[in-house]
Write a structure and sequence with these properties.
The chain is α/β, with parallel strands linked by helices and 406 residues long. It folds into two domains: 3-210 and 338-399, Rossmann fold; 238-327, formyl-coa transferase, domain 3 (2-Layer Sandwich), CATH 3.30.1540. It has 17 helices and 14 strands. The strands form four sheets. It has a seven-stranded mixed β-sheet with strand order 8-7-6-1-2-5-14, sandwiched between helices. Helix 6 crosses helix 8 and helix 7 crosses helix 8. 33% of the residues are buried.
């Protein structure tokens, strides 16, 4: 049996109209789980992220990083024949995914109310910048704007003067995860009722939800959180500590781990010190405690400490750059990198999806597509004749990429 047929979303068809990161990230996760994802792109350049660095030759690695497992059809979104084709694609799908500003979908001939009236079981999923209501509902939004407006940047960095964004577009990616979760829930609900749902999120809502206890700190106490660098804002000792050579992350999350750490460092008397007797007191005396711990940790190298810390079940690890990440034995054992072949024959090492099913890690089912790479096959799947397809190509309504090399 084809392994893809056993995946949870096998047989589910998704029309992916999204671009950039949040929507494409959601669709890639759904493809990992077995869904067939048809990525419909505007014939004029396609997904905007195709033009974003970094590049390998003419390939955008930004685009490649979150468009695995998809089929690309390139369509003139704003011509009447193109709109009719998009409608056919929507009617052939279980899910329509988009991340335009509210109302834009209707201007493309895909009014959500009309779609649902024509196909009540259709699931509509959307990601916007600021949500569907409020004064900014029609404003464009991107990840760093959401990081700033949601409070995430205000708690990231060494101090108030050095507030900064998270080093990856974290709000985009988590918005994608939220969207994929919403779609999965809507598919389950449809299995019970037969009716499709509309699920949506926004970058701002996602960023606010990511605030977790920092948001709750303000709501419940009125205290405005500030950035604390690599020191945990609530737990102590928990953060980055100097050793005899390179720093280590050591994360003590409970009293047992605190006692284990003190014993391991040869300083069991720290447990009895009144200023360190509880987690709350350790946090209040954080600077002094860090000085004491680093004096002890400075007696050995990070390489010497790590096996001892892990043997004592104290969460710990080094700070890697990406070259070190992919050389690490644990990372290699997870087989997170799979090399696939693009349509032009070039090899592309990609990080696979993170969700295993029945202890089977996901495989990358298809390399990220070139623009219009699968146009002909997708149109054939809509039962269009070869003459109709040729007419659409000749009229410039669709773009069909050249066939891949033998």
């Amino acid at each position: 049996m084809d392994k893809d047929a056993t995946l949870p979303l096998a047989g589910t068809r998704i029309l992916d109209l999204s671009r950039a990161l949040a929507g494409p990230y959601a669709a890639a996760l759904l493809s990992d789980l077995g869904a067939t994802v048809i990525k419909a792109e505007n014939i004029k350049g396609g997904d905007s992220s195709r033009a974003w660095p970094p590049f390998e030759d003419e390939h955008s690695l930004y685009f490649d990083s979150c468009n695995r497992g998809k089929e690309s059809i390139a369509v003139d979104f704003y011509s009447q024949p193109g709109r009719e084709l998009l409608w056919q694609l929507a009617m052939s799908a279980d899910v329509v995914l988009e991340n335009f500003r509210p109302g834009v979908l209707a201007t493309m001939g895909l009014d959500p109310d009309e779609l649902r009236a024509a196909k009540p079981e259709l699931i509509l999923a959307s990601v916007s910048g600021f949500g569907v209501t409020g004064p900014l509902a029609q404003a464009p939004g991107l990840d760093q704007v959401a990081q700033g407006m949601s409070g995430l940047m205000s708690v990231t960095g060494p101090d108030v003067a050095g507030m900064c964004r998270v080093g990856v577009p974290i709000v985009d990616m988590v918005a994608g995860i939220n969207t994929a979760l919403g779609i999965a829930a809507a598919l389950v609900a449809r299995g019970r009722s037969g009716e499709g749902l509309e699920v949506s999120t926004s970058l701002l809502e996602t960023g606010l939800a990511l605030g977790a206890f920092q948001s709750q700190r303000y709501l419940s106490t009125g205290e405005v959180p500030v950035p604390q660098g690599n020191t945990h804002p609530a737990l102590t000792p928990y953060g980055v500590f100097a050793t005899a050579d390179i720093p280590l992350i050591i994360a003590v999350g409970n009293e047992k781990q605190w006692q284990q750490l003190c014993g391991l460092l040869g300083a069991p008397e720290l447990v009895e010190r009144p200023e360190y007797a509880t987690g709350k007191l350790r946090h209040a005396n954080e600077a002094a405690l860090k000085d004491e711990l680093e004096a002890l940790l400075g007696e050995r190298t990070a390489e010497a400490w790590l096996p001892l810390l892990r043997a004592a079940a104290i969460p710990s690890g080094p700070i890697y750059n990406y070259a070190q990440v992919f050389a690490d034995e644990q990372v290699r054992s997870l087989a997170m990198v799979e090399t696939v072949q693009r349509a032009d024959g070039s090899a592309l090492p990609l990080v696979r999806g993170p969700i295993s099913v029945n202890r089977q890690a996901p495989r990358i089912r298809k390399a990220p597509p070139s623009l219009g790479e699968d146009t002909l096959e997708v149109l054939r799947g809509l039962a269009l004749s070869e003459e109709q397809i040729a007419g659409l190509v000749d009229a410039g309504i669709v773009l069909a990429a050249p066939p891949p090399p033998a």
